[in-house]
Structures are given as structure tokens and as C-alpha cells.
# Entry
Amino acid sequence: MTSFDNLLLISGAGRKTFKTTFACEVIRLHRNKGVVGVKISSHFHPQEGAVHWKAVPGQYEIYEESRPDGPRDSHRMLHAGAEKVYYIQCRKEALAEAFQSVLAEFSPGQPIVCESGGLADVLRPALHLALKGDGTKALHPLADVMIEKDETGFSVSPERIVFENGKWGIAA
# Structure
């Protein structure tokens, strides 16, 4: 399994786990490092306002977000300060190919913040954070850290997520 030191992967079971909120805060904190955002979904929906970038019919579609003021999670990543944001809709079996297509657009070692539930099944990120929401039954078994959110904030603060020497990690 290929490892990517420059990849921070954020996953969670279901909706309302604050995955995008956490990802956007990390992007905001690291925006001066040229961080890029990637949002991956296994659900196919029409994408109004995004630039259709690449597709393999029936397997995946990739869009580059062009405006930070829209309602989608990928818009929020751009608004948070990501240099670029790509939204990938793909079937599970095409996930590695779709991600590799986007990866070719980045500079070597460029920090990537990716929100995806399945990407850890095909590659190894430097750091995999799983966000747990209300009613979450199971988190990804390969996650490095489980994070919960309550009225006081996240159990691991986004400020503790660091990108140093080309690798994501958690500061003490």
C-alpha cells in the first residue's frame, strides 16, 4: 500500500460528524503552506458551478471548485484558504485511479487535506483522523485517532494538527 506523508485524511461515519468543519479549520491554519483540499464521495450528484475537470464514464467524475461562496463542503474548503480544491465522485473500485489523477496536479510534497471515507482502503496517509458523531456505530478501522465534538469543541483541537518537514502529525 502506497504511503503519502503529505496527506491528512479525515473520515467519519455518516453525516453531522463535523468532518468538513474540522478539515476547514486545518486548512485555515495551514493556508500559508499551499494546502490543497480534496473531497471524495461515493454518491453521484449534478455539480452546478464547479469546473468539470476529468471523468471516466460510470467510474468517476472530478471537478475543480472555482468559487468559495457556494453551499457545498468543497466550497467551504476553498473559502477556508485552500490553494485548490477538487471534488471527486467515484465508485469504490475507481477510487485509487481517481485520486492518482488529482494527485498528478499537485507539487511533490504539497500538503493535502482530504475528506473521504474509503481512501484509507487503497493508500496510507500520514495521519488518518476519524470523527465520531452522534449515533456513530463504527469508525474506519485504520484510523490513527478518533475525534469527538461536543459543546466545548473537538477532543483533539485542529490547532494540534501540524505539517512539518513535509509530513502531517499531531503536536503534543
User: Anything to note?
Assistant: The two ends are 28 Å apart (CA to CA). Residues 3-170 form a domain with the Rossmann fold fold (CATH 3.40.50). The chain is about 15% helix and 35% strand.
